[in-house]
Amino acid sequence: MMMEELELSEEWVEDTWKELEQARGEKLIKGSKKRSKKSDEIQEIILTFEDTDGLDLDDTYMISIKANSIVIGKQENKKGTIKSVGLAQLKEKRFLEYIAWDDDNYDESIFRLTMAFEKGYSIEIAGSIVIQEIKPK
Q: What residues in the chain have per-residue pLDDT under 50?
């Protein structure tokens, strides 16, 4: 019974974030962080991926990620120390995998998502998360 619940959960994540499934294995060619007002509790980044699968006519596609917290980092050593870096550091790195979980270590449950890139780079996302593909105008 427990295994069925896990499989349903994985299917839900894949259906909910189909944009991440589409981007897996693709190279990030551009990233930008939306400037927000100090009173804004939501952060946003725009990621542009090369489409090597030929799914899009333009050979690229963009994903908007909005969340309460977005931190870009690089693993510094084998002990797992993470150093904060700029979004530009991810350029030309392949998006390898994502891991999502519900973190119950705080007073309230916080949803978290880690996007892993080549060479130890990652994007840590937490809180209320919205991921959408941005269609060209």
A: 1-8
Strand-strand pairing, 43-50 and 60-67? antiparallel
What would the pLDDT profile of 33-47 be if each residue is shown by its tens digit? 987 666 678 899 999
Measured CA distances, 127 to 40, 47, 66, 69, 117 (Å): 14, 19, 9, 7, 21
Query: Strand, helix or coil at 71?
Result: strand
pTM: 0.79
Place of tokens 């596609």: 61
- What values do phi and psi take at 21, rounded to 5? -60, -40
CA distances in angstroms from 65 to 46, 79, 118, 129, listed in the order given: 6, 29, 19, 7
| Residue in the block written with tokens 């499934």 | 21
Q: Hey, which bits of the chain come out as E strands?
A: 28-34, 43-50, 60-67, 69-75, 82-84, 95-103, 110-117, 121-126, 130-134
Amino acid 125: pLDDT: 93
Check residue 9 and give its pLDDT: 56
